[in-house]
């Protein structure tokens, strides 16, 4: 009987150690990927978005995006919609919150001449009709998730580390995100998003462009597994020497930026 107890105790301790090791390894993988996507300080880029409905009908949006790097893998961003006419002048400002588990976000709607703050419970909703949620557009602070290492898999001939990311915020629309990290480049190339019922809701394919000391997204395709809708985003015309007045990265001022 004692031997059975000792064996059971040993198994429980071993399982705890492995779980702890998987959590630490997951965190280290997440940290390394963020290091590889940091160091830009600030930049401007243009985004072409193509939104495709379940019936195959597509429409486009053009967006100017400004990024200001912050400590600990976070950033402040301003997105300004240029096209089409019905959304022209719409602006969104994001910045990390004090607790670092979600981002504070504001949306300026020119038709109403009004800025509204996006409530935490609404950040799982779709962003401007796309397959991206508001929470998908936030910064990548490590404190927004807990992590687990999920083994290795092959995608398109590339060995990938599987990173399981569990949102800390109770308002997140996700149970977890399964991110596939290219082992050689230590950059994400594919992600699977699971809703609160732990059902697959959408997948993301990602291409990143190497700028020497860091890499940034150049193309992203998000496919909704439940509705068939799809969003494709292409980044272009990167400018790392853009003269951005930091005063605009403020909830009370961003709407005046042109």
From TrEMBL:
Signal peptide feature range: 1-19
Originating organism: Arcicella aurantiaca
Key word Oxidoreductase present: no
Domain Uncharacterized protein TP-0789: 75-254
Protein name: Outer membrane lipoprotein-sorting protein
CDD domains reported in the protein's UniProt record: LolA_like
Protein keywords: Lipoprotein, Signal
Source species taxonomy: Bacteria, Pseudomonadati, Bacteroidota, Cytophagia, Cytophagales
